Amino acid sequence: MLQPLGAGCHSRPGDRRLEVVLRRPRSRTLLILLLGALAGIAATWLVALLSGRTIVIQPRRGSPSVAALDFAAAAATDRLVNPPADRPVKNVILLIGDGMGTSHVLAARALSAGVAGRLFMERLPVSGTLTTYADDSIYTDSAAGATALATGHKTAPFLLSVTPARRRLTTVAEAAMKRGMAVGLVTDSYLLDATPAAFVAHTRRRLREVVAAQMASSGATILAGELLPGDEDLEKLLAPFRDGGYAVARSLDELRSATGSVAGLFPPTAIGDPAQPPELGELAAAALDKLSPSPAGFFLMVETEETDTGSHFNDFERVVRGVLTLDAIVERAVDFARRDGQTLVLVTADHETGGLMLLGGTPEEPLRYRWGTTNHTASPVPIFAYGPGAERFTGANDNTAVAPIVSALLGLGLFPGEDAPPPGD
User: pLDDT tens digit string along 14-38?
Assistant: First the structure.
């Protein structure tokens, strides 16, 4: 286990090195299972070596397959010119590719724009990386990762915008609403899932009813996402939104035509399904239409879950589709920001999932890839930025840097902060 010195290890004052601590396995059964798995892997590679064959991880059926990679750029590669840095920031659009790492971006680029090309997000004038470790582990989950992006604080996995000591953390979305700004949270996943919920909910327990009640009382102008299977007729879940003054929209047309605050609650797996609307890009566009008239500005978070779910299932095609879906939304957001002149666009991830590795691919050889895990990893994630203030996100940073910078650019005052534990949590 990897531990920082000073957290259960002996250290000199100021020594921040990492020390590897070996511990005896908790059970003989665990050790036997581990050795068995390693033996199976070793046997597979031994057979390959003896036979002179190369093991290639083949794409799943229906996944992108290329006989030879195109090394010429198939799309524009020039970087966009950032607006003057001294312009004020009125609006912020935060686009999150859940689980999206650098290799996910590279894979989507290689298959859509050519190896030497660029996705649109890669053409943004500022780029950098974010570390994503949690409060008590080197890897994180969506709850802790989104909490860091939303509040500027580390917390433990599974917790939503509360510290491990149950202190409530103010989010940048809440600070924006306190200043009269409009806020929108849009996802192609479960509306009450960790990433959107972390911006307005505060809980350790993640119960649907608890998260629904907190989101419904948040004051956000627009909320949009899916229901879980079996939720469609769950009045107990929908009631808080109606009681909170939200028009509950069950279709894209209803979402677009609703006045005032609206919660778009769509059937499971509907968002992004070619057979039925809406697409995530359509929801993002509808959210922009709802939020942009706000005289005080707006904060919009849009998340694609496809990159994370695809990585958990090691589904290469789904991951590439998710990145390209996000990339199209980035282009729409930047088009709005160019015309508006006061909008900051950020593109990043809450964590990396899958440990995706691209191992081959030449003009004569198909692209090969391998997954390292079906879980999250500790790998840093990319961040791309366009608009006034974008230069603040260049280089290597931590995910806790995002919310304080956004808050400062929007003039939201002291941030981040901690409050008393949420009642009943």
Answer: 332 233 232 333 444 444 444 544 5
Give the model confidence (pLDDT) of 238-274 as tens digits. 889 999 999 999 999 999 999 999 999 998 877 877 7
CA dist., res. 204 & res. 160, Å (int): 6
Assess whether 218 carries a catalytic annotation: no
Q: Same structural domain for residues 41 and 146?
A: no
Tell me, yes or no, whether 222 and 332 share the same domain: yes
DSSP state of 311: H
Q: Is residue 334 part of a domain?
A: yes
* The one catalytic residue among 103, 127, 142, 261: 142
Of the ranges 1-10, 39-48, 352-361, which one carries the lowest mean pLDDT score? 1-10
d(CA 85, CA 31): 56
Q: What is the CATH number of the domain that holds 400?
A: 3.40.720.10
Q: What is the pLDDT of residue 423?
A: 52
Do the beta carbons of residue 115 and residue 358 sit within 8 Å?
Answer: no
Tell me the β-bridge partners of 96.
303, 348
| Overall domain count for the chain | 2
Residues 227 and 289 in one domain: yes
CB distance 368 to 116 below 8 Å: no
Domain range enclosing 202: 91-419
Is 60 within the bounds of a domain?
no
Residue 258 and residue 300: Cα distance in Å, rounded?
A: 18
Bridge-based pairing state of the strands 343-348 and 381-386: antiparallel
| Both structure tokens of 77 | 């590669």
Identify whether residues 34 and 166 lie together within a single domain.
Answer: no
Residue 115's pLDDT is 86
Strand locations in 21-109, DSSP E? 91-97
Candidate ranges 271-285, 301-315, 359-373; pick with highest mean pLDDT: 301-315
